[in-house]
Amino acid sequence: MTRQQPFVVILILGALSTISPFSIDMYLPGFPAIAKDLHTSISQVQLSLTAYLVGISVGQLLYGPLLDRFGRKVPLYGGLALYLLASIGCALTPSIETLIAMRLLQALGGCVGLVAAQALVRDLFPVSQIAQAFSLLTLVIAVSPMIAPTVGGYATVAFGWHSIFIILAIITALILVGVYFVLPDGKQADPSLSLRPKAVLGSFFTVLRQPQFLTYALVGGIATSAPFAYLAGSSDVFMNIYHASAQEYGWIFAFLAIALIAPTQLNQFFLKRFSSEQIIRTTLLYQSVVGSLMVVGTWAGWYGQFGLIAMLFLFLAGQGITSPNASALSLAPFTRHAGSAAALMGSFRMGFGACVSAAVSMLHNNTAVPMVGVMMICVVSGLVILLFGQRAIQHEREQTQIDEPMTEVML
């Protein structure tokens, strides 16, 4: 790349990375309007979010091998084209069932941006710049929840909820043009790589047999899926229970997004003094306490709208610390199978997120209790898995230390 290219490349990669976050967050203010227009309930509309999360979970596992086998550009073209057509399908949908199906297809297409952007960073930037490039991508993804619901809220009021999907289709078309004309090719196709299920599954099973990965991937998947309960339930809670307008909901969502962004900077400070294991254990304990108070207070009627916002802010602040440490600890044991580990980790998170959003939908009772209750269950479950998993990790380390001296004596 020339000296002028890196900024443009990062801009395009950042746009690819935000397709899925925008697709999740932007239409949340339109939930009540969608339910009214399609003659259905909020809980049914929430299932369209669940379908999208299922699509991302499955899609990440598919695109990893495809990007290695066929190069970066061909899967990108296919995925973005599918996303664009599905977005138009969402805008023209006549029923909630069709919307759910279109959202699933939209996710299967759009998640190529998440996987391809990470692969292209490794392809296009020298080792000394990779960390900086990933930091910029992470920042773009983290900021998107502050923008998307606000834009979605104003678009819903001004043009109707259908316009959200038209906007997403137009944005994706522009990204597709940038990918074709500006983005470098990156790694070329490798015909020697096998796409046979046995070879792909073999790599996945190798990763899953590692106790440290399994522990922290499950902790990260379950504990960090709490925000998906918030995503699924917040529009109903604030717009139907507290009667916030679509624009007001967008600003509430943007404010609470700060709770997810700011702690990521604190994490760098904590890592200078504590290990990731200590940080994640303390953070999950903190979230379990805050989550319990949030559930009890919501059930007892202690909080009004602003009280609930404050509790959600305190709770979500822990996510910005839990997530990066869980990711680092999950991937730490791997070099050769790091790609498979990353795909599995991402799939776990979106898979658990889909289950969590579905649970909020099924438990819907016109109160905030299902949303905050599921959020609390996520972090408490993560803490329990962490405590038992750390014992298994410690046992494996001790066993390894015993086996190595015995091997030396035998030699």
UniProtKB/TrEMBL annotation:
One of its GO terms (cellular component) is plasma membrane. Keywords: Cell membrane, Membrane, Transmembrane, Transmembrane helix, Transport. The chain crosses the membrane at residues 7-24, 44-63, 75-94, 100-121, 133-155, 161-183, 213-231, 251-271, 283-302, 308-329, 341-362, 368-389. It is found in: Cell membrane. Residues 9-393 form the Major facilitator superfamily (MFS) profile domain. Pfam families: MFS_1 (PF07690). InterPro entries: Efflux_drug-R_Bcr/CmlA, MFS, MFS_dom, MFS_trans_sf. GO terms for molecular function: sodium:proton antiporter activity; xenobiotic transmembrane transporter activity. PANTHER family: MAJOR FACILITATOR SUPERFAMILY (PTHR23502), POLYAMINE TRANSPORTER 2-RELATED (PTHR23502:SF132). This is MFS transporter, DHA1 family, bicyclomycin/chloramphenicol resistance protein. It comes from Spirosoma endophyticum.
